[in-house]
Amino acid sequence: VWSGDDGAHLQTLEGHTESVMSMVWGPDGKLYSGSRDCTIRVWCDDGAAIFKTTESDILSLAWLDGNLFAPLSDHISVWSSDQLGPTDPPLHVLDGAGYQARYLISGPNRDLYFAALGAAMIGAILKI
């Protein structure tokens, strides 16, 4: 972590055992990271991390309306911001419709977009 004011190094966040593939700021002001070690880590101000273990690599994370979205294999898991404990099941599981969604981004109009593995496409998968 570096200072936005002067570029000074402030802190090193350690904990993932494989490459970090995604980072996103949550609505709670905390940093969330996803890794090839199949974990999502929530970084607190003191550097401690709470983590959730999943069944596959976390290549992307996106927040939309207080929910955290993560593409996992052939589906996208959705957790609400108040149920991100290590053993909490997803709030929703969105079927991938035959695609392996890999990268997510939330849009300006309360929509979520994905890029799918093995497909030359980008699609809107959710509009709230």
What can you see in these coordinates?
With 128 residues, the chain is mainly beta. The protein is 0% helix and 47% strand. It has strands at residues 20-25, 31-35, 39-43, 49-53, 62-64, 67-72, 75-80, 92-95, 100-106, 111-117, 122-127. The strands form three sheets. A four-stranded antiparallel sheet has the order 1-2-3-4, with no helix packed on it. Strands 5-6-7-8 form a four-stranded antiparallel sheet, with no helix packed on it. The chain is globular and about 45 Å long. The N and C termini lie far apart (33 Å).
Produce the secondary structure layout.
Blueprint: E1 20-25, E2 31-35, E3 39-43, E4 49-53, E5 62-64, E6 67-72, E7 75-80, E8 92-95, E9 100-106, E10 111-117, E11 122-127
Antiparallel strand pairs: 1-2, 2-3, 3-4, 5-6, 6-7, 7-8, 9-10, 10-11
Short description:
The protein has 128 residues and is mainly β. Helix content is 0%, strand content 47%.
- Share in β-strands: over 45%
Shape: globular
SSE ordering: EEEEEEEEEEE
Question: Which value, in Å, is the CA radius of gyration?
Answer: 15 Å
Supply the key terms:
128 residues, mainly beta, four-stranded antiparallel sheet, 11 strands, 0% helix
